Each structure stands twice: as C-alpha cells, then as structure tokens.
UniProtKB/TrEMBL annotation:
SUPFAM superfamilies xrefs: beta-lactamase/transpeptidase-like (SSF56601), Lysozyme-like (SSF53955)
UniProt-recorded name of the protein: Penicillin-binding protein
Family: In the N-terminal section; belongs to the glycosyltransferase 51 family.
Domain of life of the native organism: Bacteria
Catalytic activity reported: Preferential cleavage: (Ac)2-L-Lys-D-Ala-|-D-Ala. Also transpeptidation of peptidyl-alanyl moieties that are N-acyl substituents of D-alanine; [GlcNAc-(1->4)-Mur2Ac(oyl-L-Ala-gamma-D-Glu-L-Lys-D-Ala-D-Ala)](n)-di-trans,octa-cis-undecaprenyl diphosphate + beta-D-GlcNAc-(1->4)-Mur2Ac(oyl-L-Ala-gamma-D-Glu-L-Lys-D-Ala-D-Ala)-di-trans,octa-cis-undecaprenyl diphosphate = [GlcNAc-(1->4)-Mur2Ac(oyl-L-Ala-gamma-D-Glu-L-Lys-D-Ala-D-Ala)](n+1)-di-trans,octa-cis-undecaprenyl diphosphate + di-trans,octa-cis-undecaprenyl diphosphate + H(+)
Residues covered by the Penicillin-binding protein transpeptidase domain: 304-576
Recorded GO MF terms: penicillin binding; peptidoglycan glycosyltransferase activity; serine-type D-Ala-D-Ala carboxypeptidase activity
Domain Glycosyl transferase family intervals: 38-212
UniProt KW Cell membrane keyword: yes
Recorded GO CC terms: outer membrane-bounded periplasmic space
Sorted UniProt keywords: Carboxypeptidase, Cell membrane, Cell shape, Cell wall biogenesis/degradation, Glycosyltransferase, Hydrolase, Membrane, Multifunctional enzyme, Peptidoglycan synthesis, Protease, Transferase, Transmembrane, Transmembrane helix
Amino acid sequence: MFLLAIIGYSFIIFGGRFVFDETAVNLPTASTVVAQDGTVVGKLYTENRDYVTIDQIPDHVEEAFLALEDQRFYDHAGISFPSVARAVYRDILAMSKVEGGSTITQQLAKNLFLFNDKTWMRKTKEVMASIYLERNYSKEDILELYLNEVYFAHGIYGVGTAATYYFGKSIEELTIEEGAMLAAMVKAPNTYSPYNDIEKAKQRRDLALQQMVDYGSITAKEMQALQAKNIRVQQQEEDEKPWLDDYFAQVLEELDTVYGLSRDALKRGGYKIEVYMDPMMQKMAYEKMQADEYFPSASEAVDGAFALMEEDTGHLKVLIAGRQFELNKTNHLQVPKQPGSVMKPIAVYGPAMELNAYHAYDYLPDQDIDYNGYQVNNADGVFSGEVTMYEAIVQSKNAPAVWTLDQIGISYSKSILEKMNIILEDNGLAIAVGGLEYGLTPLQVAESYRTFIHNGEWLESRTIHSITDRYGEQLASVEQQKNQVFDPQVAWDMVRMLEATVDHGTAAAGEYPKALAGKTGSTEHSIVTGKTKDAWFAGFTPDYVVSTWIGFSEISEQNYLTSGSEAPTKLTKAIISEINKQTEIKEEFEKPDKVTDLEKPIELPTITDVTGSFEFGGFSIFQGKLFWTASPDKRVMYRIYEQRDGEDPLIGEVEGIGQFTIEDINVFNSGDYYVVPYNRLTEREGEPSNIASLSFDF
C-alpha cells in the first residue's frame, strides 16, 4: 500500500507533462490590421483576444481577480487541498461530478488542457497539470496566461480585449471598479454581462469590491465610494464600416504572397499589421462608388473598382474592390479586365518613344490597313489619313496605335511590359488596343501609369507599412520591386500628352480644377452590338496615381454599360475632388530636372488676306511689303514664296508676325507672292494663302 501510495503520489507530481500541451499555452491571439492613425481596418482570430503582458495590467485589476478567485494564489503550490477534498467529498455524495473548488492555476489548467471534461479522472488530471504549471512557470506567467485566457461573454477573450470592448479603453487605463466588474464576470460571463443584466452585473461587481477589502487592496471607505458608482459601459451599436473590407482583403493577399503569412497563422499569431490606408480617403471613395449616376447601365449588376496610390512611394492609400464588396467575394482589384485603350501609352507609344525613333509630333498613318487579316477601326469610324502621335493619344485613335505596334514589334512591346510586371500570353496586334486574352487588374494598371509621373520608374505597390508579432518584434520588411522602364524624357512627354487628353481629349468628361493626366479605355460588348463591356480611366495627379474600372462580373444580354469611358472619368474626378477638399493636392505638375518640356501643339492658321504694297526705303529706294493676319500663337512660322513658272522659290521666313519686307524688288516688273504657315514641331507646312501681286501702275 505504501509503495502504491508512493507511485500514485509520484504520478500526480511528475505526470503533469503527459497532460500538459505546449501548443495550448500559446494562446490564439487576434491579428489586427490598423491604419497609421490607429483606425482598425480588420481583425482575424479563432478567439477574439488581444494579448497583454502582466506588466501592462494594473495592480488593482490583478488584485480584483485574486480577491474574487484565489486570494492565496501567491502562497499555494497550484492547488488548494481543502478545496479539492471538499469537491471530491461532495462528488462522492452526489455520485457524480458536481463541484470544482479550483485555484487560478487549476482553472487555467482545466481551460487549457481539459476542455471542461466532467469525469472522475478530470480532477486528477487538473491537479497534475496545475502542479506541472507551478513547477515550470512563474506565478506572474501563470497569472498572465489566466488573465488572457479567461472568457468575458460576447466572443471576448482576455482582459485586454474586454477592456476595449466594455469600456473603450486600453487595459492600462482601467479604473478599480472597472477591473472589479471584469473580475466579477468570470464565474458566469453571460449571466453577469452588463449588456445582458445590468443589475446582476452591479451586484456581482459590488461583491468583488467587498472581496477586495477582505484581500486588503482597498479600504472599506474606498469600497463604499466605488459601490455607489453606476456601471458605465460603452454603447455596442452595430458600427459597420463596409469601406474597410476592400482594403483589408488586399492586406490579407499581401500578407500571404509577400510575407508568407497564411490566414491560419494570422488567426492565432497576434500580429499587428500597420498599413498605409487613409481612412478619410477610403470612406470618400466608397461613398462616391455608391452613387448610381456614375454607373450608367442596363442592369443593377454593374460593379466597379478604384485604386489610389501615392506616386512617390507606391503606397496604396485607397482600395475599393467592388461597390458592395464583402470578404471572400469577387475582388475586382485582383481580377484581370480587358483594358481597352488604356494599353496604348504603356504598350505602344511609351515603348515607341523609348526607341528614340518616334516622337510626340511625328506623323503616324491613320488609315484602314489590313495586317494579314487583322483590321481595326477608329471609335468614330473616321480615318484622317495621318495624325501626330500627340493627336493619336489625345483622341484615342486605334489605327495609328496598331500601325505603331506593328512597326516597333510585338516582342519588343512585351519586353517593356514585362518590366512593369505585366506578362502577356498574347502575340497579336490587338495588344495595341487592349484586346487581351486575360486582361490587366486595376492594380497593374495603376502601377504601370506610375512610371510616367515618376521619371519612367515602375514600382511595386504595397499596403503594409510594418508587421509586429505578439512579442513586439518587428518582422523584416520585404523590399518593393522596381525597374527603370522609360527614359525620364519619354515619361515627361507622356505626362504632357495625357494631361492634354484630360484637358480636351477623350478624358475631358467631369470636373477637376487641378492638374490631372490620364487615359480612357473601353471595350465592346461581345453580345450586345454597340454597347460597352468595360470602361476605364487611368491617370495621375502630381501626388497620386489612380485607376478606375466599371463593368460586370458576368457578361449577358442584360449586363452592359449605356455609356463609355466618360463614366469612370467622371467618377475619378469626383473622388479626387472630394479628397482635395480635405487634403491639399498640388496645383500643377512639376517638370523634373534634366528634361525638356514638351511644347503644346501648334495649330496652323488658314491665311486668306495677304495684301502687298510698295514703300520707300532700303538700298533699292523701293521695298515691297506683304501683310496678313497672324495667328495669336507666336510660335507659328510663315514662309513667303514668289510664284514663278516651275518651282516657286522660298524668299523668306518670319515667326509670329503678319508682315514681310521684300528688299530686292524690281518696281518695273510685277511679282506674285503667297504665304504658307509652317509648324516647326511637326516640320509640316499648312495651306498656301491667297496670291498678292506687287506692281506699279504707270
């Protein structure tokens, strides 16, 4: 019997290791995504617990729990033998498991390892696990685990989470009576929750305060003053913020693909993820996305996506994944869409200028050309014969884009796109007008357009500023990828052309008072002739890059847009106009150093009023004078020709003025002259003027 007693005692003392589970001690802790201003973007958890250390928990909060649950906590070795004996005695009388009689250590052991298993052996296992905890953990460690493990109703675990949930405070800010109320809830959280029964909660809290007097942590006088106070908890109104889910979804994607943190790891790991989201901008964009006026459609199924990125850093400030986006639903920021003419600057004209063989004012064919069976029409069905690249971009003409891509080569264009992390399986000239097999995501579009406003550099966009684990250690950041795609001069020339596109081209719809550059895009509906399937605006201010898409998750006879790219253009301008009211956006684009500014186009006048006369003066006594009405644009040059048999000689040239002096003239012979305007940017002449004759009538 003695030997059996020794074996049994040894088993209880040393057998706790067989009950103990190392993983259970690592309490599952919620991971929280927060903006830099402290706004909580979202949380992931299996148990809603914000872990706090014993150093963070005020002494009076610890004392409230000890007074009510285990006043001899710092004196015993993990178990209360009288309580255990009493519990066993009552269990025997009842012939079933009816009473606990547990220390804080025993409660922790039961909750971590035994899952409320009411069997005869459970109490023995509980004692074994408690002794093991006491032998291997300090009292402070055990109390810390207990205060973080305990349940507080309404899905709330741990005193840190409870402090925020019930009182809207951090654990460090809790008052004595607030700590007492939390301690009072432990015995029956749902029963004593102030949200369920405020009277029972107060009675139980007042008992806890009485116990604190017995424990010696407060005086009777302090107790009376504290018991006189009503329980004041914060209102738990349903505070829905649907505009946060979109950004949260992208953060989860980045955590997985960039940092290798799965959702399962996040649900238990207690990470704090600080992100670049601007809550004010995010909400404004969401609210504008709800306005039906920006979504002209034959169907209510119309959807959209919007991204706003800080141009200097690539930090994503606003992300809208859908008009009514919910987690685990279609995220339009990550789903490829047909980009339409948004492709032209990044796949055709930017690469062409990068070759230094094509420039903004070079003329390109605007003709109906058959490329081995592939032909493309302009949106308006009109071919101009030839247009400058500048005009082709501003007017979004298709034919010049296809011709240019054919000249520079598809493989070369794709090599440029690859530098912007755009990998295409397509190998046809339809790339020029966005006719892709899979398309681009709004985030890819935003990243690619950032190259123009940032000296030709592509930069990977990011949502995450920093990640801190539950122990306060910051995870190493992962460097953003970047590539030099275009020469700074090419990038700046594109800025000016895209600025003109917004000013008086295809992106002129809507109102925005400050500098904005961008390109529109739209794709034809595959079922309903003449209607639009996808509509885009992509562009930038001096501070931000934006990408806006409007369309449908599924294509059908009912799902089509009744308007083209003016819809996303208006929506974009509406969003950034609202942002500009709160956050000052720069007025103008600033030309980078070491680039030459791209001049605005020169429009040649039609001259019909050339007149001529003789005047005294000059070496030959008489001079001939020609006069005409000059263009307000002083950059226009005027070439003066004398009409003769055969080739008409150029006799002079002036710039910006409407007159010319003919020095060497024979007054006895009449001469016929005309003026031709000249564009030095395109190196093209305009239409000849009327003929002016100089002669004396004798």
